[in-house]
Amino acid sequence: MKLYTIEETAKMLNTTKADVYRLIRNKELSAIKFGECKVKGESLDSFFAANNSTTINCFSVIGGEC
Fold first, then answer.
1. Domain residue spans in the chain?
2. Which residues, 6 or more positions from 15, have their beta carbon under 8 angstroms from its beta carbon?
3. How distant, in Å, are the alpha carbons of 35, 62 from that of 13?
4. Which residue, of 10, 20, 34, 38, has the fewest CB within 10 Å?
5. For each of the chain's 66 residues, which pLDDT tens digit applies?
6. pTM of the predicted model as reported, rounded to 2 decimal places
7. Where are the alpha helices (DSSP H) in 1-66?
8. Angstrom distances, CA of residue 9 to CA of 52, 58
């Protein structure tokens, strides 16, 4: 299973770390706590497929936690 850091995920989605935390909090991405929060690769694949996009850059949120 491929895991990505929050920072790596934010770069892939062309968004901020706060937005990635929001996606996790809203259960749009799944993540696990493995030392630090990691996003599951298959979760990113599903997210891209569901949103017909490889970039997301229009979220405005205030941070969150895994």
1. 3-51
2. 55, 56, 57, 59
3. 22, 17
4. 34
5. 789 999 999 999 999 999 999 999 999 999 998 788 889 888 888 888 888 754 444 333 334 444
6. 0.63
7. 6-13, 17-25, 41-51
8. 17, 15
